């Protein structure tokens, strides 16, 4: 009977591609500009090649010439000349490459092999941690996903922007911004004055929206989601911890169609009168890239996991969490409420940076505001851990008890804006339709969108 021999598999590598890259860099110093933002020394499989590439980069950073003599001297200075193969190996590298024209192609091969090796290493470490776990299951799953996600991000690393090459494109964009009709950067809310204050909700920003109960936090968040998805074609993720998916659908339909929410919930819509309006609404919503998760009381690790998956599969642009205090803290750790919310807010801030998307988290206010009265302040978030410190932007919805104001006027207060202006915008809250509108009429001419006319469907 034949004996089955175990064969040792070598890690993925392409020595010829590595040699071609190094040879090209030695014969043409300008070739390094094509690969220095793509390759690191650790990307090479052979230790000798790592040392040679590191020496070449050292010369580049010191603005020294790059040729076989300077590379030899640099290796000797670092006491790695012998370990790098010596003069005969350097000469072999140069002789094996007739031209540096294809250096970028070979560099890509070297990088792809490094990614494959990283995947193998990560898989081995994941298997080891599964056999001998030192973390709870959810923490371990989050660590695993973060590791794989980071490898994925590295494999599609964005090249460095070379200023002279990018400047014409920047100037063109800058000139477009000067136009009165220019679109704001970031995710636009659809509310003119607020967008002028925020300049849109920016990628990697952690944005907190606080308000007393029943002032319209969820309605506002869904208005922004609708505007981003329908008007701007963005992909939006909504984690609804307070309402079911069906309740979210009801609100989206009411707000978009301007049919009263109670009629939609009660099934009291007169089809002959409303059919066309609802059909148009369903048509618009069917094209809206809004993804809803209504898992009851998820923990922050589950939210991070689902958000990463949405980013990879659909290309996430904007994330909404309704609301922060309903996220379940991690098990196995004794923490008071302030510590729990602190951990959650810091994880959400980290998620915004990791995915490079704005994260809008709705939040309760401390009970002190009910006793004090008046407008919300940043201090009203302090009992909720480090939300105030973690947030890049803090918004408050506030309804003033002012008899001179319209009953449905609600202020949205930009109380903190790390990279811009603070201020106050006024909105109209149409509670029957679960939606906010830009005010219209005297004093509101600066807003870009006027309030819609009264609905005939009341």
From TrEMBL:
Domain SF4 helicase residues, every copy: 180-443
UniProt-listed Pfam families: DnaB (PF00772), DnaB_C (PF03796)
Domain of life: Bacteria
InterPro entries recorded: DNA_heli_DnaB-like_N_sf, DNA_helicase_DnaB, DNA_helicase_DnaB-like_C, DNA_helicase_DnaB-like_N, DNA_helicase_N/primase_C, P-loop_NTPase
Enzyme class of the recorded protein, top EC level: isomerase
GO molecular function: 5'-3' DNA helicase activity; ATP binding; ATP hydrolysis activity; DNA binding
GO cellular component terms, semicolon-separated: cytosol; primosome complex
Keyword tRNA processing: no
Keywords: ATP-binding, DNA replication, DNA-binding, Helicase, Hydrolase, Isomerase, Nucleotide-binding, Primosome
Catalytic activity as recorded in UniProt: ATP + H2O = ADP + phosphate + H(+)
Record bears the keyword Metal-binding: no
EC number: 5.6.2.3
Cited Gene3D superfamilies: DNAb Helicase, Chain A, P-loop containing nucleotide triphosphate hydrolases
Single biological process term from Gene Ontology: DNA replication, synthesis of primer
Protein purpose: The main replicative DNA helicase, it participates in initiation and elongation during chromosome replication. Travels ahead of the DNA replisome, separating dsDNA into templates for DNA synthesis. A processive ATP-dependent 5'-3' DNA helicase it has DNA-dependent ATPase activity.
Stated family: Belongs to the helicase family. DnaB subfamily.
NCBIfam families hit by this protein: DnaB
Name under which the protein is recorded: Replicative DNA helicase
Species assigned in the record: Candidatus Liptonbacteria bacterium GWC1_60_9
């Amino acid at each position: 009977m034949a004996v089955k021999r175990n064969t040792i598999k070598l890690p993925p590598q392409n020595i010829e591609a590595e040699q071609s890259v190094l040879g090209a860099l030695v014969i043409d110093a300008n070739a390094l500009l094509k690969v220095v933002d793509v390759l690191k020394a650790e990307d090479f499989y052979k230790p000798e090649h790592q040392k040679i590439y590191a020496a070449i980069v050292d010369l580049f950073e010191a603005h020294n010439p790059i040729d076989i003599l300077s590379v030899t001297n640099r290796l000797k200075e670092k006491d790695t000349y012998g370990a790098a193969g010596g003069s005969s190996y350097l000469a072999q590298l140069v002789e094996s490459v007739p031209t540096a024209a294809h250096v970028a192609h070979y560099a890509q091969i070297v990088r792809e092999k490094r990614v494959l090796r990283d995947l193998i290493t990560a898989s081995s470490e994941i298997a080891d941690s599964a056999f001998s776990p030192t973390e709870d299951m959810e923490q371990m799953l989050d660590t695993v996903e973060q590791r794989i996600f980071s490898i994925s991000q590295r494999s599609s690393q964005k090249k460095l922007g070379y200023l002279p090459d990018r400047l014409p494109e920047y100037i063109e964009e800058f000139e477009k911004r000067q136009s009165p009709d220019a679109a704001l950067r970031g995710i636009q809310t659809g509310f003119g004055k607020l967008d002028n204050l925020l300049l849109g909700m920016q990628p990697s920003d952690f944005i907190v929206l606080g308000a007393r109960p029943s002032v319209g936090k969820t309605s506002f968040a869904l208005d922004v989601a609708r505007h981003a998805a329908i008007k701007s074609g963005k992909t939006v993720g909504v984690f609804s911890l307070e309402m079911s998916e069906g309740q979210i659908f009801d609100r989206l339909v009411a707000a978009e169609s301007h049919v009263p929410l109670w009629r939609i919930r009660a099934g009291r819509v007169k089809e002959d009168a409303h059919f066309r309006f609802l059909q148009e609404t369903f048509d618009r919503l069917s094209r809206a890239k809004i993804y809803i998760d209504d898992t009851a009381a998820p923990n922050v690790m589950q939210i991070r996991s689902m958000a990463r998956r949405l980013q990879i599969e659909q290309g996430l642009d904007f994330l909404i969490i309704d609301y922060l205090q309903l996220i379940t803290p991690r098990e196995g750790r004794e923490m008071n409420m302030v510590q729990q919310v602190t951990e959650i807010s810091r994880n959400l801030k980290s998620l915004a940076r990791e995915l490079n998307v704005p994260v809008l988290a709705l939040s309760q206010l401390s009970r002190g505001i009910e006793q004090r009265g008046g407008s919300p302040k940043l201090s009203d978030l302090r009992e909720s851990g480090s939300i105030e410190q973690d947030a890049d932007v803090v918004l408050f919805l506030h309804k003033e008890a002012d008899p001179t104001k319209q009953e449905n006027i609600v202020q949205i207060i930009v109380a903190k804006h790390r990279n811009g202006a603070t201020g106050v915008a006024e909105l109209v809250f149409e509670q029957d339709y679960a939606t906010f509108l830009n005010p219209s009429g005297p004093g509101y001419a600066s807003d870009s969108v006027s309030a819609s006319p009264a609905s005939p469907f009341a």
